Amino acid sequence: MLSRGSVRLRVCVRASVRVSGSADPLTLTPHTHTPRRPSSTLPLPPPRNPYTPRTAQREEDVIERKRNKSQLTPWHYNKQHYKPPQPLTEDEEAMECLKKQRSLFGQYGSRSGINPSKAWPSKEELALEREWERVAHPHTVQHMIDISRKERQEEQMIIKQRQDDISRKLLSLEKWKNDLNTRVAKQEKLAREAKEKKERLIDEVRDILGFRVDPRDERFKEALELKEKEEKKRSKAAKKLAKEQRMLDQLRKEVEGKEEEKEGDKDDGEKEGDEGKSLHGKVIV
Predict the structure, then answer these.
(1) Which one-letter DSSP state was computed for residue 17?
(2) Of 188, 189, 209, 224, whose CB has the highest number of CB atoms within 10 Å?
């Protein structure tokens, strides 16, 4: 059985020596370095330049991508910084609508790479524009000026009528204020009379009962209802009497008017009779 020290020694020996080609595995020889073959006398080729145009462009693209902290695409980056987009290829120009190309030319000009002749309308577009102009604006310039002048005069007339109406209402403002104050005073008077009437009825009920009673007492409420009914009967009778008095006055006026008419007719008849007698006397003479 090997001890720990012998195992460590064996590992160190194997690391520093190599086994020889002898049959005895215990025979060890030190490791020898094989000498390198001498180099040839031919000259070495020149070193290759790693910086070709393609690699330089590739490195430039890498640097630009690192500088682009916004991580925007080239199209969005150009649009954000108001730079013209990449020129359209033939296929893109054939596929892109004419309206879009005109918009690019109007925004970026010659930098957009769009042919300026595309900005001019075609014959069909000119014909359609003339047709739209004829339908949308059928009147002549002078006729349109007259219409505008007439509309302006109508607006001025409406404004003047409105101002006159406001001025007229301002003149009646004091009258309206007085009417409002009168109505308010009348309502306050009615409310005050109703309150005084209720207080008077309460005092009368207390006088009838002979002692001071809480208004929430049932006996007080019953007595107050009876008193209110009596008050309503007296008020109704007074109104009826006033109505009868008005009717009598009206009848008296009608009778007096008829008597005056009869007296007037009688006087007119007497005058006609006197005139007839005088005329008859003249004829006889």
Answers:
(1) E
(2) 224
Going by the DSSP 8-state scheme, the letter that residue 20 receives in this structure is -
Verify that 127 and 189 share a domain, yes or no: no
* Count: domains in the chain: 2
> How far from 74 is each of 108, 232, 281, CA to CA, in Å?
16, 97, 135
197: containing domain: 184-255
* Element housing 19 (H / E): strand 17-19
Q: Which helix (H) or strand (E) holds 256?
A: helix 218-284
Structural domain includes residue 218 = yes
Using a 10 angstrom Cβ sphere, with 0-12 exposed, 13-18 middle and 19 or more buried, the burial of residue 205 is buried
pLDDT band at 268 (very low <50, low <70, confident <90, very high): low
Which residues have C-beta within 8 Å of that of residue 221, sequence separation ≥ 6? Answer: 215
Could you tell me the pLDDT band of residue 154, with boundaries at 50, 70 and 90?
A: very high
Phi, psi dihedral angles at 183 (to 5 degrees): -65, -40
| Token pair of 197 as six digits | 């009437």
Cβ-contact 104, 85 below 8 angstroms: yes
Q: Give the 3-state secondary structure of residue 45.
A: coil
Range list of H helices, 139-217: 141-171, 173-209
| pTM to 2 decimal places | 0.31
pLDDT in tens, 163-180: 999 999 898 888 999 999
